[in-house]
Amino acid sequence: DTAVSQTPKYLVTQMGNDKSIKCEQNLGHDTMYWYKQDSKKFLKIMFSYNNKELIINETVPNRFSPKSPDKAHLNLHINSLELGDSAVYFCASSQGWGNQPQHFGDGTRLSIL
Amino acid sequence: EDQVTQSPEALRLQEGESSSLNCSYTVSGLRGLFWYRQDPGKGPEFLFTLYSAGEEKEKERLKATLTKKESFLHITAPKPEDSATYLCAVQGTQGGSEKLVFGKGTKLTVNP
Fold first, then answer.
1. Rounded to whole angstroms, what are the CA distances from B17 to A18, A40, B21, B60, B92?
2. What confidence score (pLDDT) does residue B96 get?
3. Rounded to whole angstroms, how far apart are CA atoms B27 and B83?
């Protein structure tokens, strides 16, 4: 009964490839997020969707494109992967926005060769 | 810009040795301060939300407190299973209020 699940858990690919990461939550939440955790373990917001509408878009290269087919899913597509994209990507969800706690998946470790 | 600084970066304790972790923050209107625990290879696990200065919350051996400039996570008589990285995050009231700004965390190791 995983609350926020991401696939795949590990992703190893070559520079220049295009890849997608999928996220699903079964908590009934209406807001979902993508975070990036770099090698220094610093966790930083990338995107947020509320009811399938983009509400946060931090300074992220346009090679990264989130897509939310419904409230329970938020996928992340990355074009033309670069070495600097290597990181752990976390999906999270919350009920509404404001000061509600966000619940995280276990991350997707992306390694670029 | 909202900022969070956590100290120390790493803390090693003996089992039963109580201590505190610090989270200093600057934010343009605090909507909430959050504490998370992160185990290796896992996502952050929600612990507490604090909303206003003077507020305290407890869970087992953990107690979180909040002032206008900082929050403390007090760990009483820790056990080895408390070993993890503890993350602090703030949510402000201006622009992108859904956004959490995280500190770099404190890695806690509790030796038996």
1. 49, 28, 13, 15, 34
2. 55
3. 29
Take residue B36 and report the two structure tokens written for it.
């998370």
The rounded percent of chain B whose pLDDT value lies above 90 is 85
Residues with Cβ within 8 Å of A76's Cβ and at least 6 positions away in sequence, in order, are A20, A21, A23, A34, A46, A47, A64, A65, A66, A67, A89, A91
Q: Which of A21, A39, A43 to probe by mutation at the B interface, max B CB count within 10 Å? A: A43
| Token pair of B110 as six digits | 């509790």
> Could you read off the pLDDT of B79-91 as tens digits, one per residue?
999 999 999 999 8
Those residues whose C-beta lies under 8 Å from the C-beta of residue B22, and which sit 6 or more positions away, are B6, B7, B8, B70, B71, B72
Contact: A55, B98; criterion CB under 8 Å = yes
Tens-place pLDDT, residues B10-32? 999 999 999 999 999 998 888 89
CB contact under 8 A, A101 and B34: yes
